[in-house]
Amino acid sequence: MTLPLPPSDPADLLLTGLTLITVDAGMAVIPDAALLVRQGRIQWLGPQADLPPGTSATRTLALPGRVACPGFVNVHTHAILSMVRGVAEDLGFAPAYTPGIPHGHDVTPDEAVALARLGTVEALLFGSTLINDTYVHADLTLPAMADLGGRVFSCGRIHDADFSLIGDGRWEHHTAIGQRTLGEALALAERWNGAFGGRTGVQLSAHAPDTCSDAFLREIAAASRAQGLRVNTHLAQSRSEVAQIQRRSGCTPAQLLDDVGLLNNRLIAAHGIHMDDADIARCGRAGMYLAHVPKGNATGGTLARTSAFRRAGANIALGSDNMHADLVEVMRWALCIGRLQEGAVDDFWQPGDVLRMATIDGARAMGLDDRIGSLEVGKQADIVVFDFRRPHLVPCENPLGNLVHVAQGRDVEHVFVDGQQVVASGRPVHADLDQLLADASAASRALWQRARASTGAPA
User: Any transmembrane segments, and where (predicted)?
Assistant: First the structure.
């Protein structure tokens, strides 16, 4: 931990007096620490007493009583789906398949931007410095989300099924829909991959095995290989999906993804609920990343067999899906559900395991673990600072245990991305929060009014 530049040359940012949870290989926890940032990267970190003499920075923040960790990497989100917040949780299945509520094809461009910005600010305020998002109007929402200062990967839903019919239980696949949605995704990648100083990117968001025909899934796999783009999807998220694939293709969803060339270590697949031992083993052999959504699954009365996935060799990262974006709570649910499967508290599920899933494992799923996901010299300075002076976080004998078992996303005080502050004292730096909330509320009201009118219900 030496300074590559003379002490007379000030760094950009110096954080002092805080506890660092590094999520390095040894999961080091450094009390009374300092961290130095220069040109967006971590230049030095360690005990504050070891800070080289003469070290200075343009900006210094003294943060006693705070705990910092790497920014969270939320690998599966639908920011716009805040429009069904408090309703979708009690429907029993995904909004896209449920009649009588707003759907993606109902959202106007302006509404999409307003709701996407809401979801992005929510994620930032809860400590997610990267979100991997998918829904509609991505050509407009991606730059609008990135303007808020975080890392944003986005893509429109890629499918060849007619979503307007799925709520009625009809799966009709049309080549024209597939060509349009895949073409839009490839154009999005060409324009926005690596933009905003490297903060934006695109993964091909193949919606789900049942909303993409077999031939179209093969086409997506070919495009992924040709363009060097990773893929994300939903997998075995419902019994109806499994039944539909069995009727249509004569196999399970995991077998289908394997057959078409998508089941590999460049795939992030959300949920993975309705899978047998053979399919879990198949995913493990492929090195697939499971986007684990523990609270969302449990709210629907289901769970993914994450213990079995881990033992099979599959990788696990965390996502909030269309629930609220508090990844601290997601970590806690992931830990509890893992222990429920084991029926015990042992070394297999510990706080460090789920913190890795929320940080370095998520970064690895995104292909960015050489840049983000841990607090280490040379990595991008994506840092989340929690205020541990609050009653529910005192006393603090074990910062890692307190973070996972007791903390909440609303305990986040400051957030930095590439060393630039994007949340200060619990408020977004690059948005008028009151106006953003008003815009999103108006968009949601308009969507619900149209949805109710379409069913004859009172507006």
Answer: none
DSSP codes joined into one string, 139-199: HHHHHHHHTTSSEEEEEEPB-SB-HHHHTTT---B-HHHHHHHHHHHHHHHHHHTTHHHHT
DSSP summary character for residue 212: S
- End-to-end Cα separation, the chain, in angstroms: 62
pTM: 0.95
Distance of CA 127 to the CA centre of its chain: 11
Bridge-based pairing state of the strands 151-156 and 200-201: parallel
Which one-letter DSSP state was computed for residue 206?
Answer: B
Mean per-residue pLDDT over the chain, rounded: 94
* Beta strand residue intervals within 236-342, DSSP E: 267-271, 289-292, 315-318
97, pLDDT greater than 80? no
CB of 443 closer than 8 Å to CB of 83: yes
Mean per-residue pLDDT, 386-397:
98
Q: In 10 A of CB 207, how many CB atoms?
A: 21
DSSP state of 292: E
Model pLDDT for residues 148-182, shown as the tens digit of each residue: 999 999 999 999 999 888 777 888 999 999 999 99
Q: How far apart are CA 335 and CA 332, in angstroms?
A: 5
